[in-house]
Amino acid sequence: MTGLPERKFSAALHALSLRKVQSALTIALLFGLLASGSGAWAGQFVQFDSGTSKESVQLTGYLARPPGSGPFAAVVLLHGCGGFHSSMIAWADRLAFFGYATLAVDSFGPRGVTANCGGFGEQVADGYAALHYLASKSFIRSSHVAVLGFSMGGGSVLASLEKGLVERLYTERFRSGVAFYPAGCNSSSGIMTAPVLVLTGDADDWTPSAACEAMVAGRSEIGVSRAPGDRSLIELVIYPGAHHGFDLSDLSLVPSRGVTFQGHRIEYNEEATKNSIARVRDFLQRTLAQP
Q: Which residues, including other chains, have CB under 8 Å from residue 95's CB and lie 6 or more apart?
């Protein structure tokens, strides 16, 4: 696929030029992409099909894998409502270093979407399409694949593993999931088909941690009626003082270490980031271990 990395890089830059994004955030993310150098592009870009027979789409993903022939346990990465950006590359490379083949999915670029923070229903299907793609590869242990997402992608993780309709739609299964500051805690039952780690901050004014606490506790709130059930598969970690996007290290380049985007504070938090990386590594070791 000659030229695909270049086209993907251009698409990433185009996504960062949105008029709706504050200029400080644009500069920070752009600088992160340019400064990352060849090390951040150590994987390869791949394409795979998603959608329905009537509305199919060929998605692009960044695939990073450990050295060797495998088979490897794997992770599917799902981005937030701002689209695919440098942090997705960084996380994919980090997880490959930890020993997991990792496929970071761009749900927006191939559809001509730059950002969509008002609701995007196709991402769950895209995650399962990525799982199907990985399962077809000889270097993947197809029964040992997790899904990890951020914000909107975190909400898609919850939807992908929630007991009910989704589990009846797909024959392949994710073994576990990780949701960073997920959208969707306020609408999820919290009753999961596999272990889920939820990582969020108590200063998050976009996807409040209180909604995730209510989900884990099974409390019914306005607009949400939660049936009794086992919610013990969810591990909830709330970081004091952490805002939305606390792991976006490119924001450390901004003097205030954060920006306001669509009326919400997005801010890098080094302590929360380091702890979350350690927790993700431990969680994946526990849930993706043999057999």
A: 64, 75, 77, 102, 148, 284
Does domain 4-287 bear CATH number 3.40.50.1820? Answer: yes
Question: How far is 114 from 11, CA to CA, in rounded Å?
Answer: 9
User: Between the CA of residue 68 and those of 73, 101, 140, what are the distances in Å?
Assistant: 13, 11, 12
Q: Tell me the per-residue pLDDT of 6-62, one tens digit each, with 9 for 90 and over.
A: 333 334 333 333 333 333 333 334 334 433 433 444 699 999 999 765 678 999 999
Q: What's the one-letter identity of residue 179?
A: A
Residue 37's nearest CA partner among 90, 1, 82 is 90
Q: For the chain, which residues score pLDDT lower than 70?
A: 1-42, 52-54
How many other CB atoms are found less than 10 A from the CB of residue 172?
A: 13
- For the record, the structure tokens of 281 come out as 């590594």
The number of residues in the chain equals 291
With 0.90 as the threshold, say if the pTM is over it.
Answer: no
Domain ranges of the chain: 4-287
